[in-house]
Design brief:
Helix content is 66%, strand content 13%. By secondary structure, the chain is of the alpha+beta class.
């Protein structure tokens, strides 16, 4: 349906291009025709004049008539040939120009079509992601309400499960909102202290790490500790939380997550390493895309998420003039490296 709209728009745009092209071509053809036929007429007049005023002995009347008739004929044939050639030229422009105009129109509309489709996909993904947990909650509640023997323990379990779902929905809508906001606005930046943002990020992931007995090891030297750089503090903390949160989420119990900070060549490098399941090579190019979840069999069924964390992290890094790279393999865990420019 949407494709049909873009096809119709392309046809209309191509039609407009073609009308302009044909109008120019016709104006050019008519002008050219006039210039050339004028030349023929002038030539004819010149020859007649030469014949009439020549000093040579005057040829007899019939020879003159033949000569003039011949001249007029030649001029008419010449004009006809020009007319035919101009008609062929205009038909050629109409057919090939039409094709080129359609190709140009498709090219002009392509970026708009692409962003429109991306927006459509994003909206439908988002509404699907919101609807699934809501339907699950609704079903659980309906089943519980229909059970006349619902005891306090089952009711508490239900509330607990619903609360978890509500929390996840909160995170999802928050991330969707932040992504939409980051798409539109520049973030106000202020000087932030590296040690400060790290401490705040680790603090917010610590309860989750404790629940799995995972140790978060921080490595930063005294020089890096006191470094300051320009950033939107809340977003940068969110960026580190997303990577730490994933590292903890995808690692096994009692493992270790490392947060290493280095500064070199006027850049700050923050590395989050884990010894978790790693990421398959074919998933690596896609994990920063919105709603992408790698290796569904290993992660989706066991770990909750919406595939929005890394998309948001990547966006935040880019807004700060930096980027995120990843080194990962299923056997050796994952290293996510954030690189951010420092103030000199
Ligand atoms: P999610 O909400 O699914 O965690 P993300 O955007 O944060 O979404 O991550 C996208 C996918 O990348 C995840 O579904 C997961 O498969 C993979 N991934 C991200 N971080 C890690 C990690 N530290 N270890 C293994 N896989 C990871």
């Amino acid at each position: 349906m949407k494709r049909q709209i873009f096809h119709d728009a392309s046809v209309k745009l191509a039609g407009t291009y073609l009308i302009i092209l044909m109008a120019l071509s016709l104006v050019f053809s008519v002008s050219l025709y006039q210039v050339l036929t004028n030349e023929f007429d002038k030539n004819l007049a010149r020859n007649t004049d030469i014949l009439e005023h020549s000093n040579r002995p005057r040829p007899d009347q019939s020879w003159r008539d033949d000569f003039l008739l011949n001249q007029i004929n030649n001029s008419r044939i010449g004009k006809n040939r020009i007319e035919r050639q101009l008609v062929v030229l205009n038909l050629f422009i109409l057919v090939f120009g039409g094709g080129i105009c359609y190709w140009l129109a498709r090219r002009s509309l392509e970026p708009i079509e692409r962003s429109h489709l991306a927006l459509e996909r994003f909206t439908s993904d988002a509404s699907h992601e919101l609807r699934t947990p809501l339907t699950a909650m609704q079903t659980e509640i309906e089943v519980a309400l229909m059970n006349p023997k619902l005891d306090t323990k089952s009711a508490k379990n239900l509330l607990q499960s619903n609360l978890e779902e509500v929390n996840r929905l909160g995170v999802l809508s928050e991330r969707l909102l932040v992504l939409a906001r980051l798409d539109e606005h520049e973030l106000p930046k202020e000087p932030v202290l590296v040690s400060d943002i790290l401490a705040q990020a680790v603090k917010s992931v610590q309860p989750m790490a404790d629940a799995k007995s995972i140790k978060i090891k921080r490595t930063l030297d005294s020089k890096t500790k006191n470094l300051q750089f320009m950033a939107d503090k809340t977003s940068i903390i969110e960026l580190i939380i997303i990577l730490l949160d994933n590292a903890v989420k995808y690692s096994g119990d009692k493992s270790q997550v490392e947060l290493t900070v280095e500064s070199k060549h006027n850049k700050l490098y923050l590395k989050v390493s884990d010894k978790g399941p790693g990421i398959n090579e074919q998933d690596l190019p896609h994990i920063f895309k919105r709603f992408y979840r790698a290796d569904q069999s290993r992660t989706k069924n066991t770990q909750h998420g919406y595939g929005l964390g890394l998309a948001l992290a990547d966006k935040i890094a880019r807004i700060h003039g930096g980027d995120i790279s990843v080194k990962s393999s299923p056997s050796s865990g994952s290293d996510f490296i954030i690189s951010l420019p420092l103030v000199s």
